[in-house]
Design brief:
The protein has a single domain, classed as Ribonuclease Z/Hydroxyacylglutathione hydrolase-like (Metallo-beta-lactamase, Chain A). The protein is built from nine helices and 14 strands. Strands 1-2-3-4-5-6 form a six-stranded mixed sheet, with helices on one face. Strands 7-8-9-10-13-14 form a six-stranded mixed sheet. A two-stranded antiparallel ribbon has the order 11-12. Helix 5 runs antiparallel to helix 6. Bound molecules: zinc ion.
Protein backbone atom coordinates (compact mmCIF):
# COMPACT_ATOMS: atom_id res chain seq x y z
CA UNK A 1 0.00 0.00 0.00
CA UNK A 2 1.49 3.41 -0.91
CA UNK A 3 2.45 5.59 2.03
CA UNK A 4 0.38 8.73 2.56
CA UNK A 5 2.34 11.79 1.47
CA UNK A 6 3.55 13.89 4.35
CA UNK A 7 2.71 17.60 3.99
CA UNK A 8 6.02 19.49 4.14
CA UNK A 9 6.83 23.15 3.49
CA UNK A 10 10.14 24.97 3.45
CA UNK A 11 11.58 28.02 5.18
CA UNK A 12 14.95 29.38 4.08
CA UNK A 13 17.48 30.52 6.64
CA UNK A 14 21.10 31.51 6.98
CA UNK A 15 23.39 31.25 3.98
CA UNK A 16 21.78 28.18 2.43
CA UNK A 17 19.93 26.25 5.13
CA UNK A 18 16.50 24.80 4.56
CA UNK A 19 14.22 24.49 7.59
CA UNK A 20 11.60 21.90 6.70
CA UNK A 21 8.17 22.49 8.26
CA UNK A 22 6.10 19.32 8.66
CA UNK A 23 2.33 19.69 9.08
CA UNK A 24 1.41 17.87 12.29
CA UNK A 25 -2.21 18.99 12.39
CA UNK A 26 -4.66 21.39 10.74
CA UNK A 27 -2.81 24.37 12.22
CA UNK A 28 0.42 23.05 13.66
CA UNK A 29 3.88 22.33 12.30
CA UNK A 30 7.08 20.65 13.39
CA UNK A 31 10.33 22.42 12.41
CA UNK A 32 13.35 20.38 11.34
CA UNK A 33 16.74 21.92 12.16
CA UNK A 34 15.73 25.54 12.75
CA UNK A 35 19.09 27.28 12.37
CA UNK A 36 17.27 30.58 12.87
CA UNK A 37 14.14 31.48 14.80
CA UNK A 38 12.74 34.54 13.01
CA UNK A 39 11.94 32.97 9.63
CA UNK A 40 10.09 30.16 11.44
CA UNK A 41 8.11 32.63 13.57
CA UNK A 42 7.19 34.56 10.43
CA UNK A 43 6.05 31.34 8.76
CA UNK A 44 3.93 30.34 11.78
CA UNK A 45 2.30 33.78 11.98
CA UNK A 46 1.49 33.71 8.28
CA UNK A 47 0.00 30.24 8.60
CA UNK A 48 -1.75 31.07 11.89
CA UNK A 49 -0.20 27.92 13.21
CA UNK A 50 1.52 26.66 16.33
CA UNK A 51 4.84 24.86 16.69
CA UNK A 52 4.30 21.30 17.89
CA UNK A 53 7.85 19.91 17.68
CA UNK A 54 11.43 20.83 16.89
CA UNK A 55 13.43 17.97 15.38
CA UNK A 56 17.22 18.23 15.49
CA UNK A 57 19.47 16.13 13.23
CA UNK A 58 22.82 17.28 14.61
CA UNK A 59 24.57 19.86 16.74
CA UNK A 60 26.01 22.27 14.14
CA UNK A 61 25.08 25.90 14.73
CA UNK A 62 23.33 26.35 11.39
CA UNK A 63 20.91 23.58 12.40
CA UNK A 64 20.20 24.49 16.03
CA UNK A 65 20.65 28.30 16.24
CA UNK A 66 16.90 28.97 16.46
CA UNK A 67 15.91 26.17 18.82
CA UNK A 68 16.04 28.02 22.16
CA UNK A 69 14.27 31.21 21.02
CA UNK A 70 11.60 29.20 19.17
CA UNK A 71 10.98 27.04 22.24
CA UNK A 72 10.61 30.21 24.31
CA UNK A 73 8.28 31.92 21.84
CA UNK A 74 6.12 29.03 20.65
CA UNK A 75 6.72 26.02 22.86
CA UNK A 76 7.06 22.74 21.01
CA UNK A 77 8.70 19.50 22.02
CA UNK A 78 12.46 19.61 21.35
CA UNK A 79 13.72 16.26 20.05
CA UNK A 80 17.34 15.32 19.47
CA UNK A 81 19.99 12.67 19.96
CA UNK A 82 20.52 11.37 23.45
CA UNK A 83 24.16 10.74 22.54
CA UNK A 84 24.61 14.45 21.74
CA UNK A 85 22.49 15.88 24.57
CA UNK A 86 25.60 17.52 26.05
CA UNK A 87 26.09 19.66 22.96
CA UNK A 88 22.49 20.26 21.89
CA UNK A 89 19.98 22.79 23.28
CA UNK A 90 17.98 21.34 26.20
CA UNK A 91 15.96 18.39 24.90
CA UNK A 92 12.41 17.52 25.92
CA UNK A 93 12.82 14.13 24.32
CA UNK A 94 16.24 12.50 23.93
CA UNK A 95 16.07 9.76 21.29
CA UNK A 96 18.25 6.97 19.93
CA UNK A 97 18.46 4.70 16.91
CA UNK A 98 15.24 2.91 16.04
CA UNK A 99 13.06 4.94 18.40
CA UNK A 100 9.58 5.64 17.09
CA UNK A 101 8.01 8.90 18.18
CA UNK A 102 4.48 10.13 17.55
CA UNK A 103 4.32 13.20 15.34
CA UNK A 104 0.79 14.42 14.66
CA UNK A 105 -0.98 11.48 13.03
CA UNK A 106 2.34 10.03 11.91
CA UNK A 107 5.25 8.26 13.51
CA UNK A 108 8.83 9.43 13.14
CA UNK A 109 11.34 6.62 12.90
CA UNK A 110 14.71 7.69 14.28
CA UNK A 111 17.82 6.50 12.43
CA UNK A 112 21.35 6.97 13.77
CA UNK A 113 23.48 7.97 10.77
CA UNK A 114 26.95 8.84 12.08
CA UNK A 115 29.60 10.22 9.72
CA UNK A 116 29.14 13.98 9.28
CA UNK A 117 29.04 14.04 13.08
CA UNK A 118 29.08 11.04 15.39
CA UNK A 119 25.64 11.79 16.85
CA UNK A 120 23.84 12.61 13.60
CA UNK A 121 20.22 11.43 13.29
CA UNK A 122 17.86 11.15 10.35
CA UNK A 123 14.08 11.04 10.66
CA UNK A 124 11.97 8.83 8.42
CA UNK A 125 8.34 9.90 8.55
CA UNK A 126 5.72 8.37 6.21
CA UNK A 127 7.15 8.88 2.70
CA UNK A 128 9.68 11.53 3.78
CA UNK A 129 13.29 11.33 4.89
CA UNK A 130 14.87 14.24 6.75
CA UNK A 131 18.56 13.61 6.29
CA UNK A 132 20.18 16.77 7.71
CA UNK A 133 23.78 16.92 6.52
CA UNK A 134 24.14 13.17 5.90
CA UNK A 135 22.55 12.74 2.47
CA UNK A 136 22.16 15.63 0.00
CA UNK A 137 20.76 15.72 -3.52
CA UNK A 138 23.48 13.84 -5.47
CA UNK A 139 25.91 14.22 -2.59
CA UNK A 140 26.62 13.58 1.06
CA UNK A 141 27.95 15.50 4.03
CA UNK A 142 31.60 16.01 4.83
CA UNK A 143 33.13 13.71 7.40
CA UNK A 144 33.81 16.08 10.28
CA UNK A 145 33.79 13.46 13.00
CA UNK A 146 33.10 10.01 11.59
CA UNK A 147 35.10 7.59 9.48
CA UNK A 148 34.35 6.73 5.84
CA UNK A 149 33.21 3.29 7.01
CA UNK A 150 30.75 4.86 9.45
CA UNK A 151 29.31 7.15 6.78
CA UNK A 152 29.09 4.38 4.19
CA UNK A 153 27.16 2.24 6.68
CA UNK A 154 24.84 5.18 7.38
CA UNK A 155 24.25 5.75 3.67
CA UNK A 156 23.44 2.06 3.18
CA UNK A 157 20.79 2.41 5.85
CA UNK A 158 19.20 5.34 4.00
CA UNK A 159 19.53 3.60 0.64
CA UNK A 160 17.50 0.70 2.03
CA UNK A 161 14.42 2.93 2.39
CA UNK A 162 11.68 2.60 -0.26
CA UNK A 163 12.30 4.10 -3.71
CA UNK A 164 9.35 6.47 -3.45
CA UNK A 165 10.71 8.07 -0.27
CA UNK A 166 11.20 11.80 -0.75
CA UNK A 167 14.57 13.17 0.33
CA UNK A 168 14.49 16.41 2.33
CA UNK A 169 18.11 17.44 2.99
CA UNK A 170 19.38 20.29 5.15
CA UNK A 171 20.90 22.21 2.24
CA UNK A 172 20.30 22.65 -1.48
CA UNK A 173 23.74 21.67 -2.75
CA UNK A 174 22.20 19.88 -5.72
CA UNK A 175 23.87 21.68 -8.63
CA UNK A 176 27.37 21.63 -7.14
CA UNK A 177 26.94 17.93 -6.37
CA UNK A 178 25.63 17.25 -9.87
CA UNK A 179 28.67 18.98 -11.37
CA UNK A 180 30.83 16.55 -9.39
CA UNK A 181 28.75 13.55 -10.47
CA UNK A 182 29.05 14.66 -14.11
CA UNK A 183 32.82 15.10 -13.78
CA UNK A 184 33.03 11.52 -12.47
CA UNK A 185 30.89 10.01 -15.23
CA UNK A 186 30.70 12.47 -18.14
CA UNK A 187 29.38 9.71 -20.41
CA UNK A 188 26.10 9.45 -18.48
CA UNK A 189 23.84 11.72 -20.49
CA UNK A 190 21.00 11.37 -17.99
CA UNK A 191 23.10 13.40 -15.57
CA UNK A 192 23.44 16.36 -17.94
CA UNK A 193 19.73 16.14 -18.73
CA UNK A 194 18.98 16.25 -15.01
CA UNK A 195 21.25 19.27 -14.65
CA UNK A 196 19.36 21.15 -17.38
CA UNK A 197 16.02 20.35 -15.75
CA UNK A 198 17.13 21.17 -12.21
CA UNK A 199 18.93 24.37 -13.25
CA UNK A 200 15.65 25.57 -14.78
CA UNK A 201 13.79 24.81 -11.53
CA UNK A 202 16.37 26.59 -9.38
CA UNK A 203 16.45 29.58 -11.76
CA UNK A 204 12.76 30.15 -11.09
CA UNK A 205 13.62 30.54 -7.41
CA UNK A 206 12.36 27.10 -6.36
CA UNK A 207 14.17 24.36 -4.52
CA UNK A 208 14.93 21.18 -6.41
CA UNK A 209 14.35 19.25 -3.19
CA UNK A 210 12.72 17.01 -2.26
CA UNK A 211 14.18 14.37 -4.57
CA UNK A 212 12.79 10.87 -4.97
CA UNK A 213 15.17 8.44 -3.31
CA UNK A 214 14.99 6.30 -6.47
CA UNK A 215 16.77 9.12 -8.34
CA UNK A 216 19.43 9.32 -5.63
CA UNK A 217 19.95 5.56 -5.75
CA UNK A 218 20.56 5.81 -9.51
CA UNK A 219 22.63 8.98 -9.68
CA UNK A 220 24.17 9.89 -6.32
CA UNK A 221 27.77 8.65 -6.63
CA UNK A 222 28.12 8.25 -2.87
CA UNK A 223 25.19 5.83 -2.78
CA UNK A 224 26.83 3.88 -5.60
CA UNK A 225 30.15 3.16 -3.90
CA UNK A 226 29.47 -0.56 -4.40
CA UNK A 227 28.33 -0.21 -8.04
CA UNK A 228 30.79 -1.95 -10.41
CA UNK A 229 29.87 0.49 -13.22
CA UNK A 230 30.84 3.50 -11.15
CA UNK A 231 33.97 1.70 -10.02
CA UNK A 232 35.11 1.11 -13.59
CA UNK A 233 34.00 4.60 -14.72
CA UNK A 234 36.15 6.31 -12.11
CA UNK A 235 39.09 4.00 -12.65
CA UNK A 236 39.69 2.40 -9.30
CA UNK A 237 40.02 -1.35 -9.03
CA UNK A 238 39.89 -4.02 -6.37
CA UNK A 239 38.93 -1.95 -3.41
CA UNK A 240 36.02 -2.33 -1.05
CA UNK A 241 32.91 -0.08 -1.22
CA UNK A 242 34.00 1.75 1.91
CA UNK A 243 37.37 2.50 0.29
CA UNK A 244 35.66 3.63 -2.90
CA UNK A 245 33.38 5.80 -0.77
CA UNK A 246 36.45 7.29 0.95
CA UNK A 247 38.04 7.95 -2.45
CA UNK A 248 34.86 9.66 -3.73
CA UNK A 249 34.58 11.81 -0.59
CA UNK A 250 38.22 12.81 -0.93
CA UNK A 251 37.75 13.74 -4.59
CA UNK A 252 34.63 15.73 -3.73
CA UNK A 253 36.53 17.63 -1.01
CA UNK A 254 39.07 18.70 -3.62
CA UNK A 255 36.60 19.32 -6.44
ZN1 LIG B 1 26.43 20.03 9.72
Amino acid sequence: MPQPALHVESVLAGHDNIIWMIATGADSFAAVDPGEADPVSTFLTKKRSTLSHILITHHHGDHIGGVVPLRQRHGGLVIGAQADAHRLPPLDLAVSHNDRIPLGNSTAHVLAVPGHTTGHLAYHIEDALFSGDTLFGFGCGRLFEGTPEMMWTSLLQLRALPDDTRLFAGHEYTLANLAFAIALEPERLELTELRTKITATINTGQLSLPHPLSMEKSFNPFLRSDDPTLKSNIGVAHISPKDIFAELRERRNNF
